[in-house]
Amino acid sequence: MTTTDFVPQDFEPPTSLEADDFVLEPLGPQHNESDHAAWSASIAHIRRTPGYPDGSWPPADGMSLEDNRGDLTRHAADFEARRGFTFTVLDPGSREVIGCVYLYPSGSDAHDVDVQSWVRADRAELDEPLADAVAAWLVREWPWERPDRHGR
């Protein structure tokens, strides 16, 4: 499966996942302020998150709200074009952003999707339950068979 065929043409990507402690919905520019606040306050925590191997995000010096909006707009465009699927993780009560989930094509022939997630430092207890819920969701509702969960 190539990046242009990340998901089958007739596949309708899920747009939500609900659990007791969080709700996932597609990430977009409408989440800008809450998303920016969430990761800005948790840079060191996110960089240490198991299964989140990038190491260069979030930027150590942060980024402007405008640059963040550009990032969210890019993720929303990827979702629309079916090149990748990024979900914001929301607190079910307040609807504040508490994390993010990324589903993008794997760069490895051994995997068909790269799966990464993070939660805010003050919600660190949700890191593992979120990763486990996403893993089960992939099996139930997504077309991939070889996810790379980066050691999770």
Structure description:
The protein is α+β, with helices and mostly antiparallel strands. The chain has a single domain, classed as Gcn5-related N-acetyltransferase (GNAT) (Aminopeptidase). The protein contains 4 helices and 6 strands; from the N terminus they run ββαααβββαβ. Strands 1-2-3-4-5-6 form a 6-stranded mixed beta sheet, sandwiched between helices. β3 and β4 form a beta hairpin. α1 (32-40) crosses α3 (65-81). The longest helix is centred in the middle third of the chain and has 17 residues, at 65-81. It starts with 16 loop residues before the first strand and ends with a strand. It comes from Nocardioides pini. This is N-acetyltransferase. InterPro entries: Acyl_CoA_acyltransferase.
Quick structural summary:
With 152 residues, this protein is α+β, with helices and mostly antiparallel strands. The protein contains 4 helices and 6 strands, in the order ββαααβββαβ. The chain has a single domain, classed as Aminopeptidase, CATH 3.40.630.30.
